[in-house]
Design goal:
Elements: E1 15-18, E2 23-31, E3 38-43, E4 50-53, H1 56-70
Antiparallel strand pairs: 1-2, 2-3, 3-4
Length: 95
């Protein structure tokens, strides 16, 4: 049975810095469908995204770091995303 990291989808759109190669890029996707999870990163100045493999623990650490800096509420207390309320069914017209 595979181990999945919850909330990993929240990394999409996050900027990453690679200190080893002195570059930065934006996460464009997360792949947990294979044995080794990965994030897809669009590095600045490159035409294609790069698939960067991570261990489960590295992905979990990345998600935790993101949540600590961007969502101060614990995950179980975060409000679910809801769709906007539908427009009123009351019709405006002349009497």
């Amino acid at each position: 049975m595979r181990d999945f990291v919850q909330q990993a989808h929240r990394l999409v759109g996050v900027m990453l810095r690679d200190g080893h190669r002195n570059r930065q890029g934006k996460i464009t996707g997360v792949d947990q469908s294979r044995d080794t999870p990965a994030v897809y990163v669009a590095w600045t100045g490159q035409a294609r995204c790069e698939r960067v493999t991570l261990s489960i623990e590295e992905l979990r650490t990345l998600v935790s770091a993101y949540l600590e800096t961007h969502d101060r509420r614990p995950v179980d207390q975060a409000e679910p995303e809801t769709s906007p309320e539908p427009p009123s069914r009351r019709r405006a017209g002349m009497r």
